[in-house]
Design goal:
The protein is 30% helix and 31% strand. It is built from nine helices and 14 strands. It starts with a strand and ends in a 12-residue tail after the last helix.
Length: 317
């Protein structure tokens, strides 16, 4: 068995493996967005020259309690169907490809501190059994609200503006600066203008709306929210960029947006440590059996307990 990083000639074989594993053809433009434009990284396994496994990861800039760093977000983990019988063994293909990647990404002088993600229950259990991931105690809940229009005072005071790429520096930069200052004690993925532009406005297949919430008269910019409509027509909040005291206002603004657009509900995923900044008396809380999972390593569980999470921290929403 040969384990190595993805090479320039592997794309066709990777796409064939993807279709065999997931019964759907991959989107070449999304793959390019993840691994080229987003500077992702991938490892493959070959058996007698045939590509039989892939372990991919996106590289994310992160603020670790106010300190710059990077983390991996695993994606497109796949093993050829005929090779899955050894999945639970320490030398199985998932374990081998993951360890190969982690050994070259984590540690002194290497680019990343750890990997994080939202794996399924089975994948969580397998990762813990293989010693790759901690059995995370960090629950990610879904908070949900019905639409609610602004009252007359709020209508007079606030405006919601759809932002273009050209608007991001003026809106996102101050919002992100205030947010990272306010949440400096947490672990939080960088949400600057460059990230918002890449993650949301340059996504090749999904259509997100980036909304700025500000005051009408003083023209004060309060914060930024990113949303999309899901398959059922609900408004999914992907990201909130604002200081702590402004988070409830962003939720109010999105409920107003729901009422205007006719969406039946608004929802966001957030870990329990932080949900109190968004909670309202009429919010519904649902445990979707999602857990923030991080790789085994120094301070991993400590970081997991302090990580700020929303839907946009995944690669599949």
């Amino acid at each position: 068995m040969q384990i190595e990083f993805v090479g320039p000639g592997d794309q066709e074989a990777l796409f064939e493996l993807f279709e065999r594993c997931f019964s759907v053809a991959p989107q070449p433009e999304t793959w390019q967005w993840k691994y080229a434009a987003g500077a992702g990284v991938g490892v493959v396994a070959r058996d007698d020259g045939q590509l039989v496994a892939h372990y991919g990861a996106l590289i994310r800039r992160v603020r670790f309690e106010g300190e710059d760093g990077q983390a991996l977000a695993p994606a497109d983990v796949m093993v050829a169907p005929e090779k899955r019988g050894v999945l639970t063994k320490q030398r199985g293909l998932m374990a081998q490809t993951a360890r190969y990647l982690f050994e070259r990404q984590f540690g002194e002088g290497k680019p990343c501190r750890l990997a994080m993600g939202f794996p399924t229950r089975r994948a969580r259990a397998l990762g813990a059994k293989l010693g790759l991931y901690i059995d995370s105690p960090v629950v990610v809940d879904e908070l949900s609200w019905h639409p609610r229009p602004f009252d007359w005072r709020e209508r007079l005071r606030y405006r919601i503006t759809r932002l273009s790429s050209a608007d991001l520096d003026a809106w996102v930069t101050p919002a992100w600066q205030a947010m990272q200052n306010d949440f400096h004690e947490l672990v939080i993925g960088v949400r600057d203008a460059a990230w918002v532009r890449y993650r949301y406005l340059q996504h090749p297949t999904r259509r997100y709306r980036v909304l700025g919430v500000g005051e009408r008269l003083g023209r004060s910019k309060q914060g930024v929210a990113i949303v999309q409509e899901d398959e059922e027509g609900a408004l999914e909040c992907m990201d909130l960029i604002a200081p702590r005291p402004t988070m409830p206002l962003l939720v109010k603004a999105l409920r107003q947006d729901c009422s205007v657009s006719g969406c039946p509900r608004l929802y966001v995923w957030v870990n329990r440590l932080l949900r109190e900044c968004l909670m309202t008396p009429d919010a519904a809380v649902l445990d979707r059996d999602m857990r923030l999972t991080v790789t085994v390593g120094p301070k991993s569980e400590y970081y997991a307990r302090k990580w700020w999470i929303t839907n946009g921290d995944t690669d599949f929403r």
